[in-house]
Design goal:
This protein is an alpha/beta fold. Strand 10, helix 9 and strand 11 form a beta-alpha-beta unit. The chain has 16 helices and 14 strands. The strands form 2 sheets. The protein has an 8-stranded mixed sheet. A 6-stranded parallel sheet has the order 11-10-9-12-13-14, with helices on both faces. The protein has 2 domains: 212 residues, 3-Layer(aba) Sandwich (Rossmann fold), CATH 3.40.50; 164 residues, 3-Layer(aba) Sandwich (Rossmann fold).
């Protein structure tokens, strides 16, 4: 008999997240997969073309039944709407999960954002005694404070109790970064299995037409992904922009993506008249390989806050899979991974002089030394970040419940 699994996630196809690939892989293994999510709106906070923002609807993707609840729009520029979005899915998703949840063998929560989104999964553990696994991509309450919410006694009380409720009602955990384990353990009353399950690389279409950032011979540095306040791109841009002309003439910084901080960064470049910094806007995910492949170095960067020192940004594995050297402007687990595996160069995110120094080193490095970084990236992709292994491990974890 097929195993029936309900995946609970705020985001799902056509939004671009790893959970899409996991759900499809499990279905191809013979599991019966359903998904509880919202009407798609990420990242623009607008409902995708072809979808209606109904209170409840069903659709189908590659044989996977998707239950969707109404989404709050406009959250990209409104804190109130962002909070409303979190609580709306928690309540509406919980109503739907109680209605449909009894028929499933296992519940799997994909926590890529707020922990409130996991409540619809957790109540099935409470009401129907269903084994419930969470794959944690973001740590609460730390990330709430990291994004600017002021820590107060009331907020701390509310968040800590939410985290205790969710974690203590969870059967077991998968974590995308090893540092998450120390943050989970204090909220548990008894020992539970915690599996390290990192994100694998995005699918890379290596048959795409070749792309060039510029017609002249330059060293190309590329950042690709969400452009928000925590990506620390001000320091990256200013460090590059302040390089001497002798270095700038040999290099170009490419920023690919969109986000709430894009306009601010564009204004910095314009006002300070920085040279050779190009904003390419958002590009289709399925085409990203040609931009990464055209680069000489790929940049991963986050601000210097404790929570981000525990994480490895999901893009890192995709960068590594392209066999390109990494410039890690970050502290903690991601920085240690780059150092220990000799994948590239590392700088402290709050030290512009150090960031400027690794830009200089990277520009002067010869192709043979860059090739060594690429070889090390290939080895890591085939071992630690092997997609098949991670997919199998997550399914086995869910079944152990």
């Amino acid at each position: 008999m097929k195993k029936k699994i309900l995946i609970v996630t705020e985001c799902f196809y056509p939004e671009e997240f790893k959970i899409n690939e996991l759900a499809l892989a499990w279905k191809n293994k013979g599991c019966d997969i359903d998904v509880l999510t919202m009407v798609p709106t990420y990242p623009k906070s607008e409902v995708f073309d072809g979808y209606k923002n109904k209170w409840f609807q069903k659709d189908n993707w590659n044989g996977i039944t998707i239950y969707r609840v109404r989404a709050v729009e406009g959250y990209r520029t409104s804190l109130f709407k962002k909070l409303l979005k979190y609580f709306a899915f928690m309540f509406m998703g919980s109503v739907v999960s109680l209605r449909i949840g009894k028929k499933y063998d296992y519940i799997f929560g994909f926590q890529v954002g707020p922990l409130t989104a996991m409540v619809p999964a957790i109540i099935l553990k409470q009401f129907y005694k269903k084994p419930t696994t969470l794959w944690i991509q973001d740590i609460w309450p730390d990330s709430v404070y990291a994004y600017g919410f002021k820590k107060s006694k009331i907020l701390e009380f509310l968040l800590n109790n939410l985290v205790k409720y969710v974690y203590r009602c969870t059967s077991n955990f998968a974590i995308s970064a090893k540092g998450f384990e120390e943050k989970i353990l204090p909220y548990l009353e008894s020992k539970k299995e915690i599996l390290y399950a990192p994100n694998w690389a995005d699918y890379l279409d290596k048959d795409l037409e070749k792309f060039e950032f510029s017609g002249d011979d330059k060293i190309h540095f590329t950042f690709a992904g969400n452009i928000g306040s925590v990506q620390n791109l001000e320091n990256v841009i200013e460090s590059f922009g302040e390089l001497d002309d002798g270095y700038l003439d040999k290099a170009q910084l490419n920023i690919i993506g969109d986000g709430s901080h894009l306009e601010i960064l564009e204004n910095i470049v314009k006002e300070k008249r920085y040279k050779n910094i190009i904003f390419w806007g958002r590009r289709p995910r399925e085409e990203i390989y040609k931009y990464l492949h055209a680069s000489d170095y790929l940049i991963v960067s986050l601000v210097d806050k404790e929570i981000f020192a525990l994480t490895v940004p999901a893009k890192t594995q995709t960068y590594i899979a392209t066999r390109k050297p990494i410039l890690a402007v970050i502290k903690g687990e991601a920085a240690e991974m780059v150092k220990e595996n000799n994948l590239g160069l590392v700088a402290s995110p709050d030290n512009p002089e150090e960031i400027r120094s690794i830009f200089k080193m990277a520009i002067l490095l010869d192709k043979q030394d860059r090739a060594i970084y690429g070889q090390n990236c290939e080895f890591l992709t085939n071992t630690v970040f092997n997609k098949k292994t991670i997919v199998d491990n997550l399914l086995e974890l869910a079944e152990r419940g």
